Amino acid sequence: MPEAHTVTSYDDDLRFLTRRLSEMGGIAERMVADAVAALVNADTGSAQRVISEDLLLDNGEREIYDKAVLVIAKRQPMASDLREIIGSIRIASDLERVGDLGKNIAKRVIAVHTMAQPRKLVRGLEHLAELALTQLKEVLDAFATRSPDLANSIRERDEEIDAIYTSLFRELLTYMMEDPRNITACTHLLFCAKNIERIGDHATNIAETVYYVATGEQLAAERPKDDDTATMVAPAPGSD
Amino acid sequence: MSEAATEKAVDAAIEESAIKMRGTDVSVFYGEKQALFDVNLDVRKNSVTALIGPSGCGKSTFLRCLNRMNDTIDICRVNGEVTLDGENIYAPMIDVVELRARVGMVFQKPNPFPKSIYENIVYGPRIHGQVSTRAEMDEVVERSLIKAGLFNEVKDRLQEPGTGLSGGQQQRLCIARAIAVSPEVILMDEPCSALDPIATAKVEELIDELRVNYTIVIVTHSMQQAARVSQRTAMFHLGYLVEEGDTDKMFTNPDNKLTQDYITGRFG
Ligand SMILES: Nc1ncnc2c1ncn2[C@@H]1O[C@H](COP(=O)(O)OP(=O)(O)O)[C@@H](O)[C@H]1O
Ligand SMILES: [Mg+2]
Predict the structure, then answer these.
(1) For residues A79 and B32, what is the distance between their CA atoms, to the nearest angstrom?
(2) Looking at beta carbons, which residues of chain B come within 8 Å of A78?
(3) A contacts of B253 (beta carbons < 8 Å)
(4) From CA B214, how far away is CA B212, in angstroms rounded?
(5) Closest alpha carbon to A199 in A17, A25, A18, A20
(6) Taking every annotated instance into account, which residue ranges of this chain make up the domain PhoU (chain A) (predicted)?
(7) Which pLDDT tens digits describe chain B residue by residue (268 residues)?
């Protein structure tokens, strides 16, 4: 953190934003971890709890918006302060979206808990979630320390998540082809996988914001995108 | 010369021709006390350059170097070089009166003469021999007041005293008075510090319009004002120029820590 403002209440305002964001980050992390655990264990009680927690993030985002607008109006922030405040608004949106995605996974737990889950695929999903959660955790660390280097490396690692998601997608399609009775459960898992992949994207967004807040510069626009599931079709029966 | 070298030379020439005034190693002393230390700063043509920095850092001192107003202070001594269109304004053959017609000045407190609005404006052009007939004088009054955005407000009372106008109108009258002699550069030392927000907004709007035809250097203690009206910003501290650059960059991502601390309100 840079040194203190002459007007000390200005620092209180900025500290409020940072503190509230790390609280939101903690909640978002926990929601995602609990939702995935609930999916693995078919634990509807835990899923229900995740769904109810989403409200905390909605409120957090709203509080940060209100505070940020008020600080801009009162103090006409400049330079690093301005970037910090604009960054807070963006990070709050990303965390709120992460919460939504966690909630969506939890809802599917309730929908599919009675169905037979293909164990191997659930494990694949678990692995994907671990990666996304690591990204989320590290990006929150990068924010806490305003570290542009860490932020940059997080963004680069998103490719890995995309690759694993793509292979999981392929496996799920194959599974559905093999036995149409798998379709309902697999579709839910497919959406869960997509949600987790999106959580990785939000971690990447946050990484880009942290980089900007810390340096005043934007990372280069496009990182290589490896989600080709948009054009993927089911393998023809008997191929492979 | 190779093509690349030619291009470089052309770019450099264009860059050079965009510079209206240049201070080179400008140092200023008030008696024994040094107020400016080797300041190197370019003022670009048809743009607004803002000078910012904490009180006493030398903004006004530097501004006064640009039209030799420091000459009027007995104990003040200026070293280094200041050029206007490449010509050293401290050279012996320079006519200071003519220089101040080319480089006009607007002060912090509106200071109209205790005369009519009309007289306030024709005074300068008359002593510089730019107008003599009644028609010429009418023309310069109207043109200057229009440019200063004041004509419609005062056209029916040109013979009334300038001191009877509101503070904001008085300041725009002073700007009209500065414009009347057709200067090339206008120096403004905290021109809005005695004005309310509406009058300030009008002066800022005016500065933006004047930039098309004039080169402007403004000292301001309002960071927001510098950010709003200028294209270039120079940050002074304890008599040194610490950073100079594009205004947009200076207020979003300055290079220098002192600038960063000053504009974000973290000073000493
Ligand atoms: N006429 C003067 N006589 C003696 N010292 C002066 C005079 N004008 C300015 N100074 C000194 O020079 C320094 C710079 O002053 P100035 O240029 O007015 O700063 P700024 O405009 O940034 O507030 C200050 O230390 C001030 O006290
Ligand atoms: Mg001053």
Answers:
(1) 37
(2) 223, 227, 251-252, 263-265
(3) 79-80, 83, 215-217
(4) 6
(5) A25
(6) 21-109, 125-210
(7) 577 888 888 887 777 779 999 999 999 999 999 999 999 999 999 999 999 999 999 999 999 999 999 999 999 999 999 999 999 999 999 999 999 999 999 999 999 999 999 999 999 999 999 999 999 999 999 999 998 989 999 999 999 999 999 999 999 999 999 999 999 999 999 999 988 898 899 899 999 999 999 999 999 999 999 999 999 999 999 999 999 999 999 999 999 999 999 999 998 6
In this prediction, the answer to ipTM > 0.85 reads no
Answer whether A6 sits within 8 Å of B251, measured CB to CB.
no
Write phi, then psi, for B209 (nearest 5 degrees): -70, -40
Shortest distance between the Cα of A55 and any Cα of chain B, in A, equals 34
Q: Going by CATH, does the domain composed of B20-263 fall within 3.40.50.300?
A: yes
- Per-residue HEC secondary structure of A8-77 comes to HHHHHHHHHHHHHHHHHHHHHHHHHHHHHHHHHHCCHHHHHHHHHHHHHHHHHHHHHHHHHHHHHHHHCC
Q: Looking at the partner chain, which of B224, B254, B267 has a beta carbon nearest the beta carbon of A79?
A: B254
Q: How, if at all, do strands B185-189 and B76-84 pair?
A: unpaired
Q: Do A83 and B253 touch (CB under 8 A)?
A: yes
B152 Cβ closer than 6 Å to some ligand 1 atom: no
Please list the residues that pair with B241 across neighbouring strands: B236
Q: Which atom of ligand 1 is nearest to B73's Cα?
A: 1
CA of B147 to the centre of ligand 2 (A): 26
CA-B63 nearest atom, ligand 1: 17
B252 neighbors B239 (Cβ within 8 angstroms): no
Q: How many angstroms separate the CA atoms of B123 and B57, rounded?
A: 34
Top residue of B228, B235, B266 to mutate, by most chain A CBs within 10 Å, is B266
Q: For A96, list phi and psi in degrees, rounded to 5.
A: -65, -40
- The answer to whether the CB of B207 is under 6 A from ligand 1 is no
Q: What is the pTM of this model?
A: 0.85
Please tell me the distance between residue A73's alpha carbon and the centre of ligand 2 in angstroms.
28
